[in-house]
């Protein structure tokens, strides 16, 4: 479906909005019983100057008298600029169309209707036993069946509230529906429908972090299904862009992955929030508005109308390349460019249109060598044991529905720190025997994950670890599992190649290198295993180096 013509005859923008996991931007404060309800039912009041108001819908029309000149402390000073009020209320509350004399209050008469939309109203609900709601669950640490949800199931209600209660800088409504149409989708969403036919399960169909004791996380299969859904939606050709809503610690990772895999020519935009929706100074609403502004402006498009920026994260009035940003502090403004090179691709501040500041040089979306439509349907994996030997196995990774969830590669991050090594590497010799965590993961991968690998977050800039860990990771390489080396932290320096059997992670963080390695495994499959991963021959080493070179080409360009 195409949008209706805009003012200039151009198609109206249509944006696909995806609700992702553990998204603060889709999270709301606990529904706490108001003092109006507490007074009505004889419950102890909360000690607060003002009552608790939450967006709710009227069930029937209501007539309201609004005190004139109460919208601003200085509004009455300009009374001579105003038309007369609708009437006056006397001391007894009776309405008069003419001033009744005495101490009367000028008022405006407002007819409120259910179809007006949401209004901020006292929250009147109580628990089943008649007590007041004080938090989301009936009691601290309650099980899921005794806990309500705070996350929205999709972004439909979020966008409604942004438009209903948000104000633009000059007092006009926030422009969302006035400049674009929206369709709402759920991909590993933050909230789920738990009652009625087709009810959903926490930790399987939706993923939350609040209440904190009920935190759940999506897995590799969920990422595969979400990727397939995004690709299918955008493949219809009906959308001008995509907005993805996720938790702030990880939104950049998902957007980088989508930018590698999804074959599309429209902008992919991620949003997050440091503060819950509806709370004081919530930042997510503005991020959403800026994302719509960015997509609708067309600033990301080239002369053919194709996206030239790639997947990005729009927060705090800045547009970051998803590859080159990470959250470093739990506060608004807590995002930083990683890798030391560029990162901020556009500025959304001020009143003017978005402006690009630079174009990323890396492959993305329709320019990515890892796009879903170009991946093979099957690749070679590895199986077996380190003792009995490693053999190859055929792995079906893609079918008519997209990625096969059960075939998703398993990539483990291992981190180097000084004074942690148990093997010293004396006399230039080191053995992997003491690196039990890495060896255990190699064994588990061979048993359960035919497509697997490692990322070693080592010392900057080269990405190397201690000799014992290096030796254990070399065993992984010759067992068919590619290993990527990255520097620690911000990775402002490149992780240059020092050993051709390892992949250099360039200036990627370890988490981003993990995603790129997962995608590369879907393209190339496992490395050729040696007969004895602890002692490869010269010919086996040469074959591994040739296979690793293909991986390296992807890490140099994506």
What would you note in describing this structure?
There is one protein chain. With 558 residues, the chain is an alpha/beta fold. It contains nine helices and 24 strands. The chain has helices at residues 35-40, 156-165, 220-235, 251-261, 284-297, 436-448, 467-478, 510-524, 538-557; strands spanning 14-19, 53-56, 62-67, 87-89, 95-96, 105-112, 119-122, 181-186, 241-245, 268-271, 312-315, 318-321, 325-327, 335-337, 344-347, 355-356, 378-385, 389-396, 398-399, 402-403, 410-415, 452-457, 483-486, 503-504. It has an eight-stranded mixed β-sheet with strand order 8-1-9-10-11-12-15-16, sandwiched between helices. A four-stranded antiparallel β-sheet has the order 3-6-4-5, with no helix packed on it. A four-stranded parallel β-sheet has the order 21-22-23-24, sandwiched between helices. A hairpin with a 2-residue loop joins strand 11 (312-315) and strand 12 (318-321). Helix 4 (251-261) packs parallel to helix 8 and helix 8 packs across helix 9 (538-557). The protein is elongated. It starts with 13 loop residues before the first strand and ends with a helix. Mean pLDDT is 92; it is low at 1-7.
Name the descriptors.
8-stranded mixed sheet; 24 strands; disordered N terminus; single chain; elongated; 19% strand; 558 residues
């Amino acid at each position: 479906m195409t949008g209706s013509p805009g003012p200039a005859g151009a198609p109206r923008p249509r944006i696909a909005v995806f609700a992702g996991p553990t998204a603060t931007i889709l999270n709301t404060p606990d529904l706490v019983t108001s003092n109006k309800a507490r007074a009505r039912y004889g419950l102890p009041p909360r000690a607060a100057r003002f009552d608790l108001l939450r967006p709710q819908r009227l069930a029937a029309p209501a007539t309201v008298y609004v005190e004139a000149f109460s919208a601003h402390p200085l509004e009455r000073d300009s009374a001579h600029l105003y038309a007369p009020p609708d009437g006056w209320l006397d001391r007894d509350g009776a309405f008069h169309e003419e001033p009744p004399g005495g101490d009367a209050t000028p008022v405006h008469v407002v007819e409120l209707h259910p179809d007006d939309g949401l209004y901020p109203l006292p929250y009147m609900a109580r628990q089943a036993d008649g007590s007041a709601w004080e938090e989301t669950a009936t009691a601290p640490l309650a099980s899921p069946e005794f806990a309500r949800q705070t996350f929205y199931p999709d972004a439909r209600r979020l966008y409604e509230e942004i438009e209903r209660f948000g104000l633009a800088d000059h007092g006009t409504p926030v422009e969302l529906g006035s400049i674009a149409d929206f369709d709402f989708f759920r991909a590993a969403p933050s909230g789920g429908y738990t009652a009625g036919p087709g009810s959903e399960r926490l930790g399987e169909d939706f993923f939350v972090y609040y209440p904190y004791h009920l935190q759940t996380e999506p897995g590799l299969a969920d990422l595969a299904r979400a990727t397939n859904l995004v690709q299918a939606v955008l493949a219809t050709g009906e959308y001008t862009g995509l907005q993805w809503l996720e938790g702030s610690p990880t939104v950049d990772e998902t957007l980088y992955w989508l930018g590698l895999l999804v074959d599309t020519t429209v902008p992919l935009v991620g949003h997050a929030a440091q503060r819950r929706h509806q709370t004081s100074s919530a930042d997510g609403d503005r991020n959403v508005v800026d994302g719509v502004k960015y997509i609708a402006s067309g600033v990301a498009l080239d002369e053919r109308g194709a996206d030239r920026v790639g997947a990005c994260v729009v927060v705090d009035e800045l547009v970051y390349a998803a590859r080159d940003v990470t959250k470093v502090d739990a506060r608004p403004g807590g995002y930083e460019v990683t890798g030391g090179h560029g990162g901020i691709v556009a500025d959304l501040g001020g009143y003017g249109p978005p402006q690009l500041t630079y174009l990323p040089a890396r492959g993305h979306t329709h320019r990515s060598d890892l796009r879903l439509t170009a991946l093979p349907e099957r690749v070679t994996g590895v199986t077996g044991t380190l003792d009995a030997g490693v053999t190859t196995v055929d792995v079906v990774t893609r079918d008519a529905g997209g990625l096969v969830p059960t075939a998703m590669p398993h990539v483990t991050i291992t981190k180097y720190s000084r004074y942690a090594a148990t093997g010293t590497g004396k006399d230039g010799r080191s053995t992997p025997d003491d690196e039990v965590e890495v060896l255990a993961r190699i064994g588990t991968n061979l048993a359960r994950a035919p497509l697997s690998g490692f990322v070693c977050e080592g010392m900057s800039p080269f990405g190397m670890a201690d000799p014992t860990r290096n030796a254990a990771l070399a065993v992984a390489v010759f067992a068919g599992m590619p290993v990527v080396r990255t520097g620690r932290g911000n990775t402002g320096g490149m992780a240059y190649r020092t050993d051709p059997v390892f992949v250099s992670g360039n200036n990627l963080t370890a988490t981003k290198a993990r995603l790129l390695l997962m995608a590369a495994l879907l393209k190339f499959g496992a490395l050729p295993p040696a007969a004895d991963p602890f002692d490869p021959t010269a010919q086996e080493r040469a074959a591994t180096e040739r296979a690793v070179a293909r991986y390296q080409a992807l890490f140099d360009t994506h």
